[in-house]
């Protein structure tokens, strides 16, 4: 790898090439989508304390968002959540306005928590921090903006694809009932997966934001150009592997909870009660706390899984800084 040389203030500086990654992750000058897919599992095995720390902070933010949401408008929020995934327009219009404030507060708190934890995980994963640290600084601000951008991109693309699907369904229904039925079956999967074709090229932006201290979707786009399928394949393999492991772990937890419930004569609720949606929406009930713990552990373990392909791709594909542009430490 060639070391770029640039001059600033009359001094010659040498910036290490970006494949020379810091402490904590192995060198990968060429991208292997299978190796990258399992990099997060290697990290979790070697640093379980970091995963536990991210899970603990996630749990704290879940409780904080629950407290603030309940304080601002808990009854309205629970009424809105009780509508489920397919409310009528009339139900939505009636339930949303009083629930708007608690929804916004919980949304912002959760996104702020995600940025805080994501920044900590990114610094640990690429080796900037040798121990897990949480702080409020520019890294967190940049990642908050990037996560919000991802969310907005995802929402806008879902709306666009939803409109396209609706138009196609209306046209095809004039000729056959089979095609609209097929479209209704595939629509949820397409609406979830299709925006990823646009988000994956921007997936290196969080790494750039923490390592180079700037937000640049363009750099991510340039770096991943021509490498979409290896990166997407690595992300898919890591995600599927993680979901399989998570499903097995969740099943074992459910068995253990059932055993504990039986041995305590029902003092500890059974899994069905703990996962009852009507109970998990209530504030600080055993069901709500249990669901929060499960979700916090899931998030803490998921971070290395998603960061593995991102950091590996950054090592292998990242476009160098233009000559004369210093990289911030």
Keywords, separated by commas or semicolons:
329 residues; mainly alpha; 2 strands; disordered C terminus
Strand and helix map with partners:
Elements: E1 5-8, E2 11-14, H1 33-37, H2 39-46, H3 48-81, H4 89-126, H5 138-172, H6 178-193, H7 196-199, H8 205-211, H9 217-224, H10 228-263, H11 271-274, H12 277-280, H13 286-317
Antiparallel strand pairs: 1-2
Helix pairs in contact: 2-13, 3-4, 3-13, 4-5, 4-8, 4-13, 5-6, 5-8, 10-13
Short account of what is shown:
The chain is mainly alpha-helical and 329 residues long. It is 70% helix and 2% strand.
Strand percent estimate? under 5%
> Strand arrangement, largest sheet?
1-2
Largest sheet: 2 strands, antiparallel
Terminal CA distance: 20 Å
Mean pLDDT: 75
- Structural class label: mainly alpha
Shape: globular
- Total helices: the number is 13
Radius of gyration: 23 Å
Helix content: over 70%
| Count of strand segments | 2
Topology order in helix (H) and strand (E) letters: EEHHHHHHHHHHHHH
**Poorly predicted parts:** 1-27, 322-329
Account of the 3D structure:
- A hairpin with a 2-residue loop joins strand 1 (5-8) and strand 2.
- Strands 1-2 form a two-stranded antiparallel sheet.
- Mean pLDDT is 75; it is low at 1-27 and 322-329.
- It contains 13 helices and 2 strands.
- The longest helix is centred in the first third of the chain and has 38 residues, at 89-126.
- It has helices at residues 33-37, 39-46, 48-81, 89-126, 138-172, 178-193, 196-199, 205-211, 217-224, 228-263, 271-274, 277-280, 286-317, and strands spanning 5-8, 11-14.
- It has 329 residues and is an all-alpha fold.
- It is globular.
């Amino acid at each position: 790898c060639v070391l770029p040389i640039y001059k600033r203030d009359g001094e010659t500086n040498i910036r290490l090439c970006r494949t020379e990654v810091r402490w904590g992750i192995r060198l990968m000058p060429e991208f292997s989508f299978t190796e990258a897919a399992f990099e997060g599992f290697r990290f979790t095995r070697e640093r379980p304390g970091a995963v536990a720390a991210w899970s603990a902070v996630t749990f704290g933010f879940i409780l904080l968002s629950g407290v603030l949401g309940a304080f601002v408008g808990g009854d309205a929020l629970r009424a809105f959540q009780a509508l489920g995934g397919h409310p009528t327009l009339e139900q939505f219009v009636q339930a949303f306005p009083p629930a708007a404030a608690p929804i916004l507060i919980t949304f912002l708190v959760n996104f702020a928590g995600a940025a805080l934890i994501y920044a900590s995980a990114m610094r640990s994963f690429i080796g900037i921090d040798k121990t897990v640290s949480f702080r409020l600084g520019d890294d967190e601000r940049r990642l908050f903006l990037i996560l919000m951008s991802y969310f907005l991109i995802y929402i806008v693309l879902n709306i666009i694809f939803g409109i396209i699907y609706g138009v196609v369904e209306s046209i095809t229904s004039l000729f056959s009932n089979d095609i609209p039925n097929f479209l209704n079956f595939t629509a949820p999967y397409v609406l979830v997966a299709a925006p990823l074709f646009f988000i994956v090229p921007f997936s290196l932006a969080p790494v750039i934001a923490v390592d180079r201290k700037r937000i640049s979707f363009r750099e991510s786009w340039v770096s991943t150009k021509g490498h979409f399928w290896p990166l997407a394949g690595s992300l898919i393999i890591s995600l599927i592997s993680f979901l399989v492991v998570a499903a097995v772990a969740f099943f074992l937890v459910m068995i253990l909870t059932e055993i504990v419930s039986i041995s305590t004569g029902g003092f500890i609720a059974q899994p069905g009660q703990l996962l009852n949606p009507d109970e998990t929406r209530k504030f600080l009930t055993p069901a709500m706390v249990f669901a929060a713990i499960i979700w916090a552990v899931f998030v803490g373990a998921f971070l290395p899984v998603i960061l593995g392909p991102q950091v590996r791709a950054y090592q292998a594909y990242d476009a160098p800084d233009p000559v004369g542009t210093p990289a911030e430490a």
